[in-house]
Design a protein that fits this description.
With about 300 residues, the chain is an alpha/beta fold. Helix content is about 35%, strand content about 15%. The strands form two sheets. A seven-stranded parallel beta sheet has the order 1-2-3-4-5-6-8, sandwiched between helices. It has a two-stranded antiparallel sheet with strand order 7-9. Helix 7 runs parallel beside helix 9 and helix 9 crosses helix 10. The longest helix has 16 residues. The radius of gyration is 18 Å and the shape is globular. The relative contact order is 0.13.
Length: about 300
Amino acid sequence: MRYNDFNSYLKTKFGCRVQKITIDAGFTCPNRDGRSSTGGCIYCNSKGSGTGLFNKGISISEQIIQGKSALSKRYNAKKFLAYFQSFSNTYGPVERLKKFYDESLSFDDVVGISIGTRPDCVNDEIITLLESYSKNKLVWIEYGLQSAHDDTLNFINRGHNFKTFKDAVDLTKNRGIKICTHLIIGLPNENKEKIIETAKIISSMGIDGVKLHSLYVIKDTKLEDLYNKGQYKCLDQKEFAEIVCDILEVLPPDIIIQRLVADPHKNELVAPEWSMKKTENLSLILKILENRDSWQGKKFER
């Protein structure tokens, strides 16, 4: 591989196929409930990439059991990570968080936990709770940053600045917790230079993993309004793939790449259509790296 992929990392660590089980725990977001804002980020709809299963009465344990069954059949997975994905999964009283996390880790073949959240939704008490699990389980926390540029964060109504992210990383480091950062490629008013600058900034921060996402337009969002008015234009497929390769080149070679392309819901997607072609997008990225004779970390500067 020309980049340090997550599946290989997990297989090396556990000696078998490990799959994430996506969990919906019914959390919300300070960017929606009024603490920071009520509108959410301009690209996020009211579902927040969630399934709604918890609010439909499907418990954490039931979601784990269903996920194990499906992933065992599809991937021959032997072990699993509990992945709290939708909205901000550290946004609540620590007692509630502990109840959910404990429940997800009560299965012998669930070897770890991955928590998707925002950098403005953690404190020392929450990080101490996650640290306690790291003694026996693999613990990842995924901080949505999207961009290191405050003007961009303000435009997309992110509800926090880059310093908030830096403070969260500083709070989390050296606590036995792996840190993954989410970056979005193609945000409004960002050119390639600004995107690469974000990648270089996080490369200097001791981050353990990165998730890259293409910005796609989904229904019932502010971004859809901008798109329909001609005020936002999506990247084309090759532009996106080229920028992914540019980012990989400047990242440290040891950072784990958890994701290179996003997975939009077909019934929500407005544009671009190519964002549905995950396999094709991954193949294009690898082809570009091969044509460049390039790899993750080739241009990384300490």
